[in-house]
Amino acid sequence: MRALLIATVLPLLLLASLTACGDDDAARPALSDTEHTAQDVAFAGEMLQHHAQALAMVDLTLGRDLDPEVLALAEQIRDGQAPEIEQLSDWLVSWDEPVPATVRDHSLAGHGDRSPSEAMAELEDSHGDGHDGGHGSMPGMLTSAELASLEGADDEAFGTLWLELMIAHHEGAVEMAQAQQATGTFRPAVELAEEIEASQTVEIETMRGLLG
């Protein structure tokens, strides 16, 4: 289903981009199948962390009595983003760049001893106030307080809050993906950014529909 949605939406996004961007295309860097720039490294490292937080949010749906459509969407997000995390990590390793720590590495789902909110608080502390130059500077990233609110919600409130926060999270990922398409050089990373924009745009609309 995810592949079908991407196949349907991606051409439309590309057509809109070609129609609207005209002169902007000439200003974009030439793409390379082998060379990468600091922008490509930043995209890989930040999107990896962003995706990991989405999976931590998916982890929080486990064991809850939720709308089956919400649970199905959570599974779709996990199945789509987990392989992308592996790809992003592989690129960083191949470029001799560090693979950043993520909220999921230290949470219970990652075999750590912390909840996602506790793991996020630790990462925020490691970046000072958590908002300048750290995880909080990425569009759509949840704070430890927002994750704690999600963890503490009962099942009835959880579904709505989860959808609202995941929409904001997806919107941030789309913004990051668009920046990579505009300024990235490494062709595979630009192509992944196109796929992320397409798939998450569809999921945003799905979540808005579930909210009613």
Summarize the structure in words.
With 212 residues, the chain is an all-alpha fold. The protein is 70% helix and 0% strand. The chain is globular and about 50 Å long. Mean pLDDT is 88; it is low at 18-22 and 129-133.
Number of domains: 1
The CATH superfamily turns out to be: Ferritin, core subunit, four-helix bundle
Q: In angstroms, what is the radius of gyration?
A: 17 Å
Question: What sequence of helices (H) and strands (E) makes up the elements?
Answer: HHHHHHHH
The number of distinct helices, counting runs of at least 4 residues, comes to: 8
What is the number of E strands?
Answer: 0
Poorly predicted regions: 18-22, 129-133
* Secondary structure category: mainly alpha
* Biggest sheet layout: none
| CATH architecture heading | Up-down Bundle
CATH class: Mainly Alpha
State the share of residues found in helices, binned by percent: 55-70%
How would the global form be characterised?
A: globular
